[in-house]
Amino acid sequence: MENSGAQLAQEIQWIKRAQLGEPEAFGPLVQKYQQRVFALVYHLVRRRDEVEDLAQEIFIKAFRAIRSYNFQSSFVTWLSRIATNHCYDYLRHERASRVSFYWQMGEESQQELEANAQSQPEDALDHEEQLALKDLVDKLLERAPENDRKILLLKELQDYSVEEIAEILNLKPTTVKVRLHRARKRMLEDLRQWREENKRP
Fold this sequence. Notes:
Layout: H1 5-19, H2 23-45, H3 48-65, H4 75-94, H5 107-118, H6 127-143, H7 146-157, H8 162-169, H9 173-199
């Protein structure tokens, strides 16, 4: 997610030219960040046929708003905030249905889940297991409530820092930490329930 000094200087030039109304200066920014925006849109909306159109709308919205970008945060953080808000506006209008999530979890089961999670070393997975795990994570994200999915996606799949997520979602970093902690625990509970469901004949 980091830029080298030369890349950052070039990016700043593109942004400043775009802020002066030069559409051709915005093109390189689209090229640089389109894959990140595509991934963000896909994981939030979960509809492949809508990704390209939504991404295009996001970049148009970003170009129209670029004069408001003040260089206080990174450009990709600012762009991701626009993308996230646009996707959730879209989902609200679509009133997309959500699969039930398993919210009920007492303190005792929370501690048990945390212990189980800590006992699984990540580096013990081979390539096939990692692919299977990624597929499972996608399935669990699809089942997750909107707020959980948003914060888990930004942290676990997009690899944003807590501070960057706070900027994107307009929250305090401490709020992000609490929500992320709770969302991870709920996902672990959902994983346990999902495994139980798939044991049935």
